[in-house]
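Folding Task

Wanted — backbone structure
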Amino acid sequence: MTTTATASARELQRPKPSLVPAGLLQFLTWALVAVAVIGPFLPMLYASVRDRPLYEHGGVFSLKGYGDLLHDHAFWVAAWHTLQYAVGTTVVAALGGAAVAILVARTDLPGRAILGRAILLPLLLPALGIVLGWIVVWGPGGYLTLEADRIHVPTLSINTIPGMVLIEAARLLPVAYLTCEAALARADSSLEDAARSAGAGPLRVLRSVTIPMLRPALLNSATLIFTLAIASLGIPLLLGSQRGINMISTYLYLNWTNGANPDPPLVSAGAVVLLGIATTLLVLRNRLLGAEQRFVSIGGKAGRTALVSLRAFRWPLAVAILLYLVFSTLIPVLGLAAMSLVVVLTPLVAPWKLFTWEHWHALAHDGVFRNSIEHSLMISVVGAILTTIVVALATLVAHRSRFPARRTLPFLMLYPRATPGLIIGIGFFWAYLLTGAFGDYMRTSIWGIMLAFCVRDLPFAYVVMYPTLARIGEELDRAARSVGAGWWTTSRKIVLPLLRPAVFASFILMFVELLNDYDPALFLVKPGTEVIGTTMLDQFLQGMVGPVAALALVQVAATVIVLAIGTAVFKTRVTGGHDA
């Protein structure tokens, strides 16, 4: 790294003037992020205080939408269901993730390194595809549900609130694992060693020292999981709404799309209320992040952590984690694979007797399915490139410049992920409606959907890029400035080359997230602009289970392949960069 920085500094002895002044570039970057993130919510707020939809002429200021919302009994029932769902998901996922983090980071669990990486699969794989896999296997009429009924074994109905909590918690458990494992990795183990030297047993050390150190991380992850749960749409829509169990997300979606008389002011008012809740939770989470820094013990150079011996529990606990992965990921994926190759999936008839290629044939020849795959791939490639470039510039402005408004950028870049995708979709719908020719074009093309996806998923690029930038010493910037280099020249010649592995990793993660996203598009998609997620939802609700299973399997396979290639290339580049 020093050699690279020295060589770059020599190249800067005669800096060339930048075509765009640094201050202007920084302002344009900040303005682009601010407008993209905050801009769509302003038309939504405006729509919520009008007495009629914005696409109708006339209209006056009115709080009727809020009045109708708050006086609708169905809304309060949906709010109560959402609270139950979010609290249940948070408790199960947070406690489960913390337990796995402790086992992986602080015990002699067999295969803990492999299990620690595999535990991320439920979070990385496409959520909607995995949910469809759960339904195929465990839903009403699902393969294993019918098999269990045949042999009189009781099962949990997944189209109930406890069942939906189980599925969502299984998907979000890795969020708590990542947060708690990171806290344990940077915590000084001297406190635990001191407790052991004083005669405390392994369980007492975990109970008295390790778990209290995790309290801020647990609160942080619980807040994030709660936010993600109240924003969930796929699980409540596919499972709950069929039995009349609506959450706020499905209440808003169904009021917009399925009502005989859609009520956009009411939906916009509900979206603003949900946005306010999400914003409050994000602010709370930021405060908890500050608390975590005060309570976690950090050592300058932590020594090797003494692992707690699990003794007879080593293998049973490892098997328990493995079973979680099997039931949360492997079985749903296998269910999708089986469903895509049979006329109907039933334990009453052997699958090979019902074998068919018709579902895959539909994917190749049906225009809607084919267009969905092509559109999703185009959005993923173009969107990942553009978002990575913008986030790289915004991260440099936020943490490597003196731009006056730089401190607002981290919040802006994290805000979209705390915002329900449904709300982002509503916001962009109104924004496109009010922006003339530009909005008309975006509403009728896949690029309007791409922009909504990019805004929603840009936090992933930032959380990958910022830690790497934080490890690049600012003395390199000062050395470049000492020979007359400006901000952009320093960033382009020194910082960005060192940031290249993180930029590449951000591109891979953005590609995967854009490929798997769907809920912002529910308010934007039109015939001819379908993407994989919206097509899966629409076709599944119409009873086209086989082709949807094949489409979901394509999505899962693409995700796994891209992540595998990205991991291999990313490791190679990091190693190469380090050796240099």
